[in-house]
User: What shape does this take?
Amino acid sequence: MKLTEILPRDCIRVVLQAKDKTQAITELVELLAEGNHVTNRDEVLRAVLDREATRPTAVGHGLAVPHGKCAGSPKLVMAIGRPAEPIDFGSKDGEPINLIVLVCSPADQTGPHIQALARIARLILIEKFRNAINQAQTADEIFEIIARHET
Assistant: This one.
């Protein structure tokens, strides 16, 4: 599985309007719902927010990966957003977040869900990837950077 296979191009927003964690998650779930990539927006939002409440999903290097599993997501899918200003996601290192990758999947797809999270975590460790993502100006640029680093 490649991340570009589960990342619809219409679910990348270079400048999120959100000012906090809940707004950012909501905005990304809205992207998925507007593109008809999920069947129940409210259920997906609730699953992701519930998961976030159990343990913050900030993983370091300015990245947060909020995620959830529920019936409102008929397939593994993700959305990406970069906030206009860094957002506090409660990261252990105290650093604010400047890239948010939201992942959701059906409840019975634990394996692929975990694989997607692991792929995202590996990419963010690559300094060249982080720099390119932070400098990207468009959704297409972000998509192409991910595609280039996945091979």
